[in-house]
Amino acid sequence: MKRLEGKVVFSGIAIGKISIMKKENQSVRRWKVDDIEAEKARVDEAKEQAIGELKKLYEKAVQEVGESGAAIFEVHQMMLEDEGYLESIDNIIETESVNAEYAVASTADNFAAMFSAMEDEYMSARAADIKDISERVIRVLMGKGESGLDGNEPVIVVAEDLAPSETVQLDKSKVLAFVTKYGSSNSHTAILARTMNIPALINVGYGEEIDGKMGIVDGKEGILIVEPDEEVLERYRAAKEEELKKKEMLKELKGKPTVTKSGREMKLYANIGSISDVATVLQNDAGGIGLFRSEFVYLEKSDYPTEEEQFQIYKQVAQNMAGKKVIIRTLDIGADKQVDYFNMDKEENPAMGYRAIRICLDRTEIFKTQLRALFRASAYGKISIMYPMIISVKEVKQIKAIVAEIKAGLDREGIPYGDVEQGIMIETPAAAMISDLLAKEVDFFSIGTNDLTQYTLAIDRQNAKLDNIYDSHHEAVLRMIQMVVDNAHKEGIWAGICGELGADMTLTEKFVKMGVDELSVSPTFILPIRKIIREME
Ligand code: PEP
Ligand code: MG
After folding, report:
1. Residue 426: partners with Cβ closer than 8 Å, 6 or more residues away
2. Does 50 sit in the ligand 1 pocket, CB within 6 Å?
3. CB of 260 within 8 A of CB of 536?
4. Is the CB of 451 under 6 A from ligand 1?
5. For 267-292, what is each residue's pLDDT tens digit?
6. Cα gap 421→386, rounded to integer Å
7. What is the DSSP track for 452-500?
8. Cβ-count burial of 243 within 10 angstroms (0-12 exposed, 13-18 middle, 19+ buried)?
9. In 3D, which of 477, 388, 381 has the Cα closest to residue 433?
10. Strand, helix or coil at 204?
11. Helix (H, G, I), strand (E, B), or coil: what is residue 183?
12. Nearest to 431, CA basis, from 393, 401, 384, 471
């Protein structure tokens, strides 16, 4: 039994097999084999399975991005049938008496080098495809599932680090917990873990040898126990039972209002990143969705989502929420949320760089596509729109002009849309300091304490080394929240908190007293916070 310490990102207990998630460029070991024919047969089988996967991917991609976007998966299937490629693999196995993984990796290196050296741009670009298909075959040979995880059973996912794009692609039903070596508790991967209600630890120094072993994630103490003995296992099984019982008790609060004993009501909404989170929102009886991070719609795709694709997603969320408020935040990429197809330049300081509304007001075609989808979807439910990373009244005015253009276009085409409330995120000190001016321009404020803390304290929320001093309880942050709430009320609009601080139960009472009108939190925090508020005077 081994105990590895880390830092808690989301609490809870998980018990199950550990699976180290291999990234691309997984290292391939070489070993001698006796049965050459059996090794060649392994290649053949893996190739067939890889082709099967590519066929499915092609069909999925046709649905999502159309035939031309999906064509690459057909090309990959053909490459996997290429005689020269397959002969080279067999040849290496035969002449060197080595394992299939190594033979595929060597062939990939040789072919990729050959393609890269070609003058023809099209041909030299095929080097990346050769690597891609070979990695797929190697992964199959290693018995890993498509997400990089073993087989079908749910596992404790262990990785060096996880980018938000990798996290969203994981099949959530197969993940018991996340454990990473790097990362920070304010990163979007951490936020996703909370939304998914999955115990998560960071800063855990682990070795490859733990792969496939039984493990326990203790999301209270912040430890990963590898190969627990029977007594420890029993103790944690009992603790998990207890955890489930507590959750059951909270269910009694479903359907009850979030109101203090003296009658002060708090709107309690949920944060989501994708349509699949709506089920948890409903299960936890949130009053609405206070933050739909729409950039995850973009992160899940391999090309710009079309207006129609976005419209279908927003419409479905609005319909599933059946008349409850759904606040959708417009695209907030940049910083840790990078989308390849945006082809953004590498920046020295991306958190302060070209991101969020700055991109939308610059590349307005992207913004307009999203706004049209949002307004069209607003005819099917109660959609509100909110804009991220605002620093000036000028930006709000620019947004309003674009919105007016979108609405005029829809009017001309006779396309219906609802009465859409429009608000902004207060997540820069600039926005907090001019919240009196901004309040005159919008319908509501939602305070993004994650970024507000980062920019106020000048602490990169991604920097694990600074995790200990990244403090959203800092008086400067709390004073700004009070200022924003007061300025909102002076103009008769409401102000909520949608950053992670909103779910900090040590502050719930304080927020009520400060006059905060709404808290938007990960779905699993809804009932515990409702409990606190209902017990307040
Ligand atoms: C925030 O900054 O507090 C926020 C809610 O937005 P995000 O975490 O997505 O940056
Ligand atoms: Mg933010």
Report:
1. 390, 432, 435, 438, 445, 446, 447, 448, 452, 480, 484, 495
2. no
3. yes
4. yes
5. 999 999 988 899 889 999 999 999 99
6. 8
7. HHHHHHT--TT-GGGTTT--TT-HHHHHHHHHHHHHHHHTT-EEEE-SG
8. middle
9. 477
10. coil
11. coil
12. 393
Nearest-atom number in ligand 1 for the CA of 388 is 6
Which residue from 82, 102, 181, 115 is spatially nearest to 142, judged by alpha carbons?
102
Coarse DSSP helix, strand, coil percentages of the chain, rounded to the nearest 5 percent = 50, 15, 30
Beta strands in 300-408 (DSSP E): 325-329, 382-387
Residue 272 CA, distance from chain mean position = 9
Residue 2 CA, ligand 2 centroid: distance in Å: 38
Give how far Cα 416 sits from Cα of 279, 308, 375, 407, 445, Å. Answer: 27, 15, 8, 9, 26
Residue position matching structure tokens 């996967």: 53
Q: Is 426 left (phi over 0), alpha (psi -120 to 50) or beta?
A: beta
Task: Please state, in angstroms and rounded to a whole number, the distance separating the CA atoms of residues 107 and 113.
Answer: 10
Of 23 and 523, the one with more pLDDT: 523
Q: Which residue puts its alpha carbon closest to atom 8 of ligand 1?
A: 450
For residue 65, the surrounding DSSP H or E stretch is helix 36-80
Cβ–Cβ < 8 Å for 202, 464: yes
Hey, what are 339's tokens?
């989308």
Strand partners for 175? 155
Q: Which residue do the tokens 């599933």 mark?
A: 320
Instruction: State if residue 336 touches ligand 1 by the CB under 6 angstroms criterion.
Output: no
Q: Which two tokens stand for residue 527?
A: 């009932």
> Which stretch of 11-20, 155-164, 207-216, 517-526 has the lowest confidence by average pLDDT?
155-164
Return d(Cα 377, Cα 375) in angstroms, integer.
Answer: 5
Contact 30, 102 (CB under 8 A): yes
Amino acid at 487: N
535 C-beta neighbours (distance < 10 Å), count = 10
E strands, 110-234, where? 155-159, 175-180, 200-202, 214-218, 223-226
DSSP 348: S
Please give the number of the atom of ligand 1 that sits closest to the Cα of 447. Answer: 3
- Beta carbons of 534 and 253 less than 8 angstroms apart: yes
pTM summary value: 0.71
- For residue 504, the surrounding DSSP H or E stretch is none
Yes or no: say if 321 and 270 are a contact pair by the CB < 8 Å rule. Answer: no
Rounded to the nearest angstrom, the gap between the alpha carbon of residue 222 and the centroid of all alpha carbons in its chain is 22
Distance 449 CA to ligand 2 centre (A): 7
User: What is the C-alpha separation between 59 and 66, in angstroms, rounded?
Assistant: 9
Calpha distance 456→474 (Å, rounded): 9
Residue range 328-381, pLDDT digits in tens: 999 999 888 888 899 888 899 999 999 999 999 999 999 999 999 999 999 999
Q: Which amino acid appears at position 315 of this protein? A: K
